[in-house]
Amino acid sequence: MAESNLAPEKSFVFDFVERNAEAVATIGDSVFYFGELGMQEVESAKLMTETLEKEGFSVERGISGFPTGFCATFGSGAPVIAMHTEYDANPNNSQASGETEQKNITAYGPGHCEGHNCNAAVMVSGAIAAKRAMENFGLKGTLKVFGAPGEEQLISRPYYVRDGWFDDVDVALHDHIGGDMSTVYGLTHAAAVSAYFTFRGETAHASTAPWRARDALDGVVLMDMGMAQFREHMEPDMRAHRVIKDGGDQPNTIPAKATVWWTFRAPTAEGARKVFEQGKKIAEGAAMMTNTEIEIEVMSAVWPVRTNQGLAEVIQGNLDLVGVPEWTDDEQAFAEKLQIAADVTPEGLKTEVKPLLGPTAQRAPSNDCGDVSWKVPMGRVGFPGNVPNVPFHHWAGGAALATTIAHKGSVAGAKTLAGTVVDLLSNPALVKRAKETFAAEIGDVVYKPLIPADQKPPVDLNREMMETFRKPMREHYIKEKPEFV
Ligand SMILES: [Zn+2]
């Protein structure tokens, strides 16, 4: 890499991120040890917003009714460039960083097991670098930095889009950790609808007078059987999975209330809606069979994620300039040992940027940024802060997330993100090309939110679980604050 040949704006942001590598790591590590579940990312959002505010961004908190959501703005006028990412952890995934075996930080506690902690570090640091370049070189435009709570439950961004937060946005950038330094374009993720199905009946003593009861748990069980039969007739890419949130209190009291949480997925928004509609019919049938009543509460509903070719090309140019971090022998050895422990291909860390190939194949998971990606052209910066091949939502997915691998990967991610923003601010033709390719990509599909117009965010989600673990987790919080110089 010959940095001296770079445009001065580009060298500036690359140097800025390099110089502030410690602050990047502090954000990532802090969010790692907060380990906060979706909708309860209080400390994480506080750190991110305070850091951006200190830097001169004006911060709106609690947007669209999300207590841990925010929009931080800098600058004015066109182009309007949005950045957005998630910072939530998962239940039961507390994993000590730097260990190659399963080891809890807090017994049975929540923890990061993918790397959303690094996503936060990359977005905040990349945004600050871009903002400094705007000031230094007089670049015109607006940066909007969105904090998106509850990604693991696919919650917040469809609300943001529905409520108009992206109406004035020209292009959007999402950053996500992985084992690769890469970007893609095309349809990447599936659409999903997830909902609580609550059956309500009547209690009775299960031994002395079971005939007096209307058993809500029977409703849940029969819905499960109905869905199992329906699976045979789903299209090959459709998915349906569930957990029972409430199956009653004790065996001698027939439950008057039982709740099952289903997620339905398909490659298209229309497909996900179709599976959901069939799920509703099955639930109604189960209620009818058990003389119970059914209430259905939509938790989230997202479009499939698509990323834009025009933006992928700009991101790829920056990935190639930044290059994969120089890994030490120790880092390579750690990665390989972790891969062996996780029973995946032991190939160590990637040493080359992945080339941009044609449209990618769509995969089964979902991400709530799907709605953003049908509203405006969206690009994804994939940065190498985790060990390749490790399974996410598994202890091995958390083992590298506060190590130097995560730190160096996040620096590479923040440089790429900031470099991409600087390109888009300096060259209107790139924004134009993103919009043109986007128009061709979505064709005649008309975006309409899948979430109901009056749907409110589930603000109490995970509250109880998080409160149980906060006290022991607090002992591990990082004391330092990120300082950008
Ligand atoms: Zn993720």
Mean pLDDT: 96
Number of strands: 12
The fourth-level CATH homologous superfamily of the largest domain is: Zn peptidases
Bound molecules: zinc ion
Which CATH class of the largest domain?
Alpha Beta
Distance between the termini: 25 Å
The backbone outline, from C-alpha atoms, is: globular
Domain unit count: 2
Helix content: 25-40%
Following the backbone from N to C, one meets helices and strands in this order, namely HHHEEEHEHEEEHEEHEEHHHEHHHH
Assess the beta-strand content as a share of residues: 15-25%
Q: Might you state the CATH topology name of the largest domain?
A: Aminopeptidase
Summarize the structure in words.
- With 485 residues, the protein is an alpha/beta fold.
- The chain has 2 domains: 3-189 and 304-474, Aminopeptidase; 191-299, 2-Layer Sandwich (Alpha-Beta Plaits), CATH 3.30.70.
- The chain is 40% helix and 16% strand.
- The chain is built from 14 helices and 12 strands.
- It has helices spanning 8-19, 21-34, 42-54, 116-137, 156-162, 216-231, 269-290, 309-322, 329-341, 370-375, 395-398, 404-426, 428-442, 463-474; strands at 58-61, 70-76, 80-85, 141-147, 171-177, 186-187, 191-200, 239-246, 257-266, 293-302, 306-307, 378-383.
- The strands form 3 sheets. A 6-stranded mixed beta sheet has the order 1-2-4-3-5-12. It has a 4-stranded antiparallel beta sheet with strand order 8-9-7-10, with helices on both faces.
- Helix 4 (116-137) links the parallel strand 3 and strand 4.
- Helix 1 (8-19) packs across helix 4, helix 2 (21-34) runs antiparallel to helix 3 (42-54) and helix 4 (116-137) runs parallel beside helix 12.
- Bound molecules: zinc ion (ZN).
